[in-house]
Write a structure and sequence with these properties.
41% helix; PIN-like_dom_sf; 3 helices; alpha+beta; 2 strands; globular
Length: 49
Amino acid sequence: MALRLAGTPIGPNDTAIAGHAIAACAILVTNNVREFERVPGLVLEDWVR
């Protein structure tokens, strides 16, 4: 909801993925960093770079 109110929403599937990673205290490995870096509290790792 906060991302939508800020005008930077992400898709519903990405929201579920990010929420699960945060709840599990996990690092999210993705090459879609641009989308997920907007999620506060989400730790990302880009193995493509």
